[in-house]
Design brief:
By secondary structure, this protein is mainly α. Among the domains are: 40-173, 2-Layer Sandwich (Potassium Channel Kv1.1, Chain A); 247-276 and 289-387, CREB-binding Protein, Chain A (Up-down Bundle). It contains 17 helices and seven strands. Strands 4-3-6-5 form a four-stranded mixed β-sheet. Mean pLDDT is 79; it is low at 1-24, 29-52 and 381-388.
Length: 388
Amino acid sequence: MGKKETITKQSPAPTHQGVNNVYPRQPPSPAEAPNYRRKGPFKNNGSAVTEDNCASTATRDLWDNLFDGGYRADVTIKTENGDTIYAHANVLGMASPVLRGMLKRAKSSGQKRSISIHGVHQDVVRVFTRFLYSSRFESEEMKEFVVPLFVLSHAYDVPRLKRVCEEQLESGLLNLDNVVDIFQLSLLCNSPRLTLISHRMILRNSKAVLATDGWKSMRYSHPGLEKELLESVIEEENNRKEKIRKSKERKLYLELFEAMEALVHICRDGCRTIGPHDKDFTQNQAPCKYRACKGLELLVRHFAGCKLRVPGGCIHCKRMWQLLELHSRLCADSKSCRVPLCRNFKERIKKQNKKDEIKWKLLVKKILKTNRIEGRISFTKSSNSLSS
């Protein structure tokens, strides 16, 4: 033992000149080892590779050559049309626990065991088996076989391939023609994210999807699922209409609020060529910031000169009466307000019937609520502060 220890501790001395006194270099420590991990997908001769594969290109080429050459293959895979694909049991068993169980139960024919993968085209089986070796796939093959590959990845428990198929579908292979089929498969293959994405596509393009062959097939094969989808489509359409209605309603309330601001602006400050009698209009006025001012100016001029100015006699005058009443209900201080008839409408409100009062209060409440949501300053507060 002592002799062996001294041998290991001593530095070896060169004994032959033929080796030029060159010895193998010490391998790098783990901290200094080169990092071969590649981030993101990359291509080699048109082949895309999954992101979580850190093997080098040469290593993947080696696995591809092993599959293509079939060197010492000990498994034959029988396809739907009787074609034979040669593979290696160790590779298949490590890549798929389902294939590992099939290989344990497989009968040997000479030195080779035989298993069968039916239900898909032979080219799909070949692409599937190649992926088990090198995690590679051709983009054109994936575009053509993404659906059966997705099914095989779930059936044979190959999560890496399943993730690749989901990403490819999300990236553009999911379309209106196959979205119904993908939706059904995602439910069967336990892919919640793909279920959500395909369901959203169906809801957004319901009219086009309802006319596809996939939907017609589902109508006969899964009528219960079709009923649920139709209910969700109807609900989505109702929600969309309700959203549009609320958007238009909100826009109307904002326009009414802007009209009230413009009315106070005209009656208090004056604008362009219209305003209070004591206002001195100059030629060089600053641009008006109120968008409703121009239309309201025309309405005020019409109201001042119309001979049918009674409520109900002229539609333009009727609109002006409504704006004046709405202002009085929004105005916080009618005594100092310079808008015409503000105080008169305050007195008239007290004598108004209950039904009309409820309608006006509801309108005022919605206008003020919309104004608060927009974060705008109330014109009643600003006008009162300036008048004081």
